[in-house]
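We were asked to recover a plausible sequence for a given structure. The inputs and outputs are reproduced exactly as logged, with field labels preserved.

PROBLEM: sequence recovery
POSITIONS: 539
GIVEN STRUCTURE:
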C-alpha cells in the first residue's frame, strides 16, 4: 500500500490555544496527554463535578475553532497513567472518573461537529502495551511522555484517519470458498469432511464468516470468486450447520474454473464499481499473486496461515471502516442485489425504452433537511463516477446551502419494480440574477442505466425557470473515476463555451469567473433546452 506523506508544522509545547485561534486554513492535530492538562493533584481536594468546569475551560479554544472553520481537526488523546490495581478493586479511581468524563466531553463535541475526528490513544496503545508506549525519560528530557513506539502508533493512527477523510472506504469483499470460508476442499472431502462448525478450527472459520457478516450489516458487499463446482458450493451453503453466510447475503458470485481476475472484472462491470473498491481475500498465495500482477487496483490481503487470527484481522480491517454508518449503508446489500438483477434483465431485452417504462420508475425530489443531510454528505464524499465536479461538501456546508435563497438544491430517491433504491442523487445550483451555476450534480453509480440523471436535470431546469432564471452554466472537471459522466452535458443540450469567446456583458460571466476554471464549461438557455428520455418516467 502506498503511504501518503503529509507536511507537518510543529507548534511549541503548550501553545495549542494560540494555534486554534490563529489557524483557520490548515488541518490541526492536537495531541493531548490528560495529565499535562489537569494535574492529578487537582483531584485531592476537588470533586469530579468541580473539575468538570476545568474541562470545559480547557476545551473552549477547540470549540471556538470548530465553530469557525470546516477544515478537519484531529484530536489524539490519552488519559492513562499508572495506578495501583488495588485502588480500583471496588470502584473506579478518581483519575479513572476524570478520564471517562474527558472522553465523554470530546465525543459529545464530535457529535455536534462532523469536522472533529478523535483518536483514542488509550485503545491504540493498549494493543502494544501501555508501559511500552510511554517513556518517563522522554518527558523529563523533552516534555514528551510517549516512547518512540508510542509516537509510531500515534503517527500510524493519524495517517489512517487522514487517509479516510480523503478517500472513501472499500465496498466489496471477495471471498474464496475452499480453505477460506471453510477448511478443506469440498470437491475432495465432501460436505461432511470440511472443517466448519463450533469446535476448534471449525469455529475459527465460522467466526470468520460472522466477521464478514458484521461488515455486510454496515454496507460492505459480500461476493464469492471460487474455482469450484457451483452445485457443491451451494450444497455447503444450504446444508452445513456451521455456515454463517447464506446465499441471500451475497450480492453476486462467480463459481467456475475461469481466472479470478476475469471474474472480478465481470463483477465490477455488473455492479458498476471501480476495481479499487474491491478487497480480495483468498488463502491461495498463487491466486493472490495473480491478482496483484493483473489487477493492482484491487486490495489483495496477505493472509497469515493461522486461520485463528482471521476473525480479529477482518473485524479490525481499516479499509472497510467508516466514520459513521447510516441507514443507507445498511441497505447497500439489498440495493446492489437489485442492481445486479436489473443489469441481468436489461441485457435480456431488445427495446430498452419499453423495458424502462415497464419497471415503473418512481423518482421523488427531497429537500435538503436535517434528516437528509447525513446522506447528502455521504453522497458528496463517496460518489466518484457520475459526479460532474467531485466537490466534497460537508454537512455544515450543505446545511448553509439548504437555507440560502441564492441556491436551488434537492436530493432524489428512486423506487421501481426492483425495489427501493433510497436517496441516490444530489443537485445544487447557485443563482445570480438570470444566471445559474451547477455547483453539484451527482448520482450513485448503482442506479446507472435508468436515465435518472436526465429526470434530475429536467426537474432542476423546471425549478430554475420558475424562479426566473434564463441561463444554466455547468462545468465538467475530469478525475480518475468520472469519465462515465464526461458526455452527459453535451448529450443533454448544453454547449461547450470558452471564456475568451464570452463577452463581459453576458449575464453569466460573473458566475464563471468565481470558479477555479479547472474543467470545461457548458452553457444552455433554459427555455430552449430539451432533455431526453423523459418518456420512461411518464405515468
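RECOVERED SEQUENCE:
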Amino acid at each position: 500500500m502506498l503511504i501518503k506523506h503529509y507536511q507537518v508544522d510543529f507548534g511549541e509545547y503548550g501553545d495549542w490555544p494560540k494555534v486554534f485561534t490563529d489557524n483557520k486554513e490548515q488541518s490541526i492535530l492536537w495531541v493531548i496527554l490528560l495529565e499535562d492538562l489537569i494535574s492529578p493533584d487537582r483531584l485531592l481536594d476537588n470533586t469530579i463535578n468541580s473539575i468538570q468546569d476545568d474541562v470545559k475551560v480547557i476545551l473552549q479554544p477547540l470549540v471556538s475553532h470548530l465553530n469557525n472553520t470546516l477544515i478537519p481537526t484531529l484530536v489524539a488523546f490519552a488519559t492513562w497513567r499508572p495506578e495501583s490495581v488495588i485502588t480500583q478493586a471496588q470502584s473506579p479511581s478518581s483519575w479513572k472518573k476524570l478520564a471517562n468524563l474527558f472522553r465523554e466531553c470530546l465525543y459529545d463535541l464530535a457529535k455536534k461537529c462532523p469536522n472533529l475526528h478523535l483518536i483514542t490513544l488509550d485503545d491504540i496503545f493498549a494493543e502494544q502495551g501501555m508501559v511500552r508506549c510511554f517513556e518517563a525519560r522522554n518527558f523529563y528530557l523533552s516534555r514528551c511522555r510517549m516512547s518512540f513506539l508510542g509516537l509510531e502508533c500515534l503517527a500510524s493512527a493519524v495517517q489512517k484517519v487522514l487517509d479516510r477523510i480523503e478517500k472513501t472506504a472499500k465496498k466489496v469483499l471477495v471471498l474464496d470458498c475452499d480453505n477460506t470460508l471453510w477448511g478443506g476442499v469440498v470437491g475432495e472431502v465432501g460436505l461432511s469432511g470440511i472443517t466448519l462448525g463450533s469446535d476448534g478450527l471449525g469455529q475459527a472459520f465460522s467466526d470468520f464468516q460472522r466477521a464478514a457478516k458484521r461488515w455486510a450489516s454496515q454496507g460492505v458487499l459480500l461476493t464469492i470468486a471460487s474455482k469450484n463446482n457451483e452445485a457443491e458450493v451451494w450444497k455447503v451453503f444450504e446444508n452445513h450447520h456451521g455456515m454463517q453466510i447464506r446465499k441471500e447475503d451475497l450480492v453476486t458470485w462467480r463459481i467456475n474454473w475461469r481466472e479470478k481476475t476475469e471474474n472480478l472484472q465481470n463483477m465490477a462491470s455488473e455492479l458498476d464499481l471501480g476495481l479499487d473498491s474491491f478487497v480480495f481475500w483468498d488463502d491461495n498465495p498463487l491466486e493472490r499473486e495473480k491478482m496483484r500482477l493483473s489487477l493492482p487496483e484491487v486490495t489483495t490481503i496477505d493472509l497469515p496461515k493461522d486461520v485463528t487470527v482471521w476473525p480479529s484481522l477482518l473485524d479490525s480491517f481499516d479499509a472497510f471502516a467508516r466514520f459513521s454508518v447510516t441507514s443507507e449503508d445498511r441497505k447497500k446489500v439489498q440495493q446492489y442485489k437489485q442492481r445486479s438483477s436489473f443489469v441481468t434483465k436489461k441485457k435480456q431485452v431488445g427495446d430498452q425504452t419499453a423495458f424502462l417504462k415497464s419497471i415503473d420508475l418512481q423518482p421523488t425530489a427531497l429537500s435538503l433537511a436535517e434528516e437528509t443531510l447525513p446522506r447528502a454528505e455521504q453522497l458528496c464524499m463517496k460518489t466518484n463516477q457520475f459526479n460532474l465536479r467531485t466537490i466534497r461538501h460537508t454537512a455544515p456546508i450543505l446545511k448553509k446551502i439548504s437555507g440560502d435563497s441564492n441556491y436551488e438544491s434537492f436530493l432524489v430517491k428512486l423506487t421501481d419494480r426492483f425495489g427501493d433504491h433510497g436517496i441516490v442523487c444530489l443537485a445544487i445550483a447557485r443563482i445570480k440574477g438570470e444566471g445559474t451555476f451547477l455547483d453539484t450534480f451527482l448520482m450513485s453509480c448503482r442506479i446507472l442505466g435508468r436515465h435518472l440523471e436526465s429526470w434530475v436535470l429536467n426537474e432542476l431546469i423546471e425549478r430554475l425557470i420558475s424562479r426566473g432564471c434564463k441561463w444554466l452554466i455547468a462545468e465538467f472537471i475530469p478525475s480518475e473515476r468520472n469519465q462515465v459522466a464526461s458526455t452527459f452535458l453535451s448529450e443533454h443540450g448544453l454547449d461547450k463555451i470558452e471564456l475568451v469567446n464570452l463577452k463581459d456583458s453576458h449575464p453569466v460571466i460573473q458566475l464563471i469567473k468565481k470558479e477555479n476554471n479547472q474543467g470545461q464549461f457548458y452553457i444552455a438557455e433554459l427555455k430552449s433546452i430539451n432533455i431526453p428520455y423523459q418518456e420512461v418516467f411518464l405515468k
